[in-house]
Amino acid sequence: MVMSFDSYMRDMVQPMREDLTRVGVKELLTPEQVTEALEQSKGTLLLVINSVCGCAAGQCRPGVAKALQNETTPDHLYTVFAGQEKEATAKAREYLAPYPPSSPSIALFKDGQLVHFIQRHQIEDRSADMIAGDLIDAFDKYCK
């Protein structure tokens, strides 16, 4: 039996996608979806740049899930998957200036303005609880 690379990768990353989608984060799969979500959403918006790396699995995704248990959370929850939906991820990164491309990473927007950003280097050496604490502080500051 021969399995295509694309099919294999979809199957391989599905559990990594579900780490976020099962807690209510919506996937943006196309550049058009990214543009619509980031330009038309009012209020606060969380954008997670997901990744297959170990720090995404051990710190980023669990940290986001824990933070979303907070009483105050963003109005909109989105994710793009770096290395999978490449065009959607590239489009999302246009909204993250002046920060360089970073995956995983976590961005919080308020009324279309980037107000808080956690880059990969701020994820890889911190625990999920520390990342959740950072996000909760940002949620409490910007999402009320």
TrEMBL record:
<protein>
    <submittedName>
        <fullName>BrxA/BrxB family bacilliredoxin</fullName>
    </submittedName>
</protein>
<dbReference type="Pfam" id="PF06491">
    <property type="entry name" value="Disulph_isomer"/>
</dbReference>
<comment type="similarity">
    <text>Belongs to the bacilliredoxin family.</text>
</comment>
<dbReference type="InterPro" id="IPR009474">
    <property type="entry name" value="BrxB/BrxA"/>
</dbReference>
